[in-house]
Amino acid sequence: MAKVTIDDITIEVPDGTTILEAARMIGPHVAPPTMCYYSKLKGTGGYCRTCIVKVEQGSEKDPRPMPKPVASCRTTVMDGMVVRNNTSPEIQEARAGITELLLINHPLDCPVCDQAGECHLQDLAFDHGKVKTRYEFERRTFTPQDIGDNVKLHMNRCILCYRCVKTCDQITDGRVHGVINRGDHAEISTYISNAIDNDFSGNIIDVCPVGALTDKTFRFKSRVWFTNPQEAHRDCDKCCGKVTLWTKGTDVLRVTARKDAFGEVEAFICNTCRFEKKQLSDWTIDGPRKVDHKSVISANHYQVKEAPKYLYDRVKLLNQGLDLPEVKDNK
Ligand code: SF4
Ligand code: FES
Fold it and tell me: pTM score, two decimals?
């Protein structure tokens, strides 16, 4: 075991734990932001540098500080290590620089982007972004591309975090997409225009931290904060069948995996659950979903409401094959 102190809070963690994992064990208020690391996938992290921290003391045995900020997702703790994240002005300034870099090519299209309200880059820009860009060159632009029947790629918004590539690599058979070219020309692409067509491809939408990969069945249907997130499940022979339904009245606008306090999925779900089960009667509703990840949905502006009783009554009628009465008041 190793003792590590992060922002003046000490915790004991198993040897081999990374600084990021240790910070997450303390809680989301201490954990550094992450744009490429994903706890449910192997080998992620090390691309975006948003998770940098200052190591004030390397270990009990060797108390020298580390000379530069380190990526917390790639650095393991040592016994007696002292780390600063939110309490280091130097790290806040460095993170602002990284945010500026990530935004160099990212369009300011939040008002029309489906990811708005649950976008990790939007949160990062809110916390660390500058009012104006200093970038004077033309931004990279790409034409939106269909990736299979249900996913749309907006490469303009991609920050090349590699999460979608790792997802396809690790949870689907026969990956056909990846990053082609290098440097300023690097882009996510399907290999020789192949569509991603397998049972778990929809998960790339959930892991994408920005709005680069969007659900074609949900695009432009509603701002996410106007929907009502509810936990639901069904018997599924391909995945756990445990999802979040994003409803408006009795309409299921979107189905996603359930996400934890860090905005990462709890378990990956299959395309049948995600794209084909869009009726309330397909699901057993477990109750309202608390959105833990820092987001406009959970920022007290829009609180998760208990699903209204009339909704449950209507599902019961649907399950019994009876006609639905007219809805008079949705509140
Ligand atoms: S499309 Fe999304 S998940 Fe894939 S590399 Fe780009 S930002 Fe990351
Ligand atoms: S989250 Fe650590 S480098 Fe991206």
Answer: 0.84
